[in-house]
Amino acid sequence: MSQFEEKGWVRxxxxxxPSGMAxxxxxxxxxxxxxxxxxxTWKQSGGQALADKWLTKFGKSxxxxxxxxxxxxxxxxQLLGDGWIEQxxxxxxxxxxxxxxxxxxxxxxxWHLDMPPANPLSAVRMFAYLSEVRxxxxxxxIVEGSHRLATAYPGLHSxxxxxxLSELHPWFxxxxxxxDVERRLPVLMDExxxxxxxxxxxxxxxxxxxxxxxxHPSLFHVGAPNASSQPRLMLTHTVLRRADSS
Length: 246
Fold this sequence. Notes:
Layout: H1 2-7, E1 9-12, H2 21-30, E2 49-50, H3 53-59, H4 70-80, E3 93-97, E4 123-129, E5 141-144, H5 146-150, H6 158-168, H7 170-176, H8 184-191, E6 193-195, E7 198-204, E8 212-215, E9 221-222, E10 232-240
Antiparallel strand pairs: 1-8, 2-3, 3-10, 4-8, 4-10, 5-7, 5-9, 6-7
Helix pairs in contact: 6-7
């Protein structure tokens, strides 16, 4: 898990069998008027990521329990030890991102941390992919390596940490307060920067059905527009370390 420690995330390709999961999710969406063969019915979400309470309840029904297989369990054991909290049958709240009109760009606002840094690692965030999520297809954006910089600011709110990092290096200022619009994407996503010996760059978390991405809860991340023609279907989940685990 050296990649997780260095970059803050790791992909487990084809980690689970997604058979029937996307179909089950669409069955739930149909009950609320959204159909896979009619893009007009997707517009009621306003193009935003759909994660309503009824979807969370559906996720707890056990239909996605197959995500929690041996490969995923073994990876979590490496990251959290054998003392993590297993929520039987509740392996993922559905998250659906419908296509939007217009182009794709790296957002300037909305970047945040899910949890302040903690040692030992207190939790792991998970994405499990039920559909093909290609480039510019709504995949969450992360600042690879930012979890290592965040450790210098324990307990601080995301906004405060953003301000501190902007003061620390111009690369972060370009991320949140762009100046060089023409070169912004290559600077952020290709070139990146070295900040306090940490390589940072913006990464789009794409994936294929059955893939799992485990990522650090102290990574800066943000939702991104879906500029593709198909909805992003995935699961999001947080696995917690037990309080008595060493």
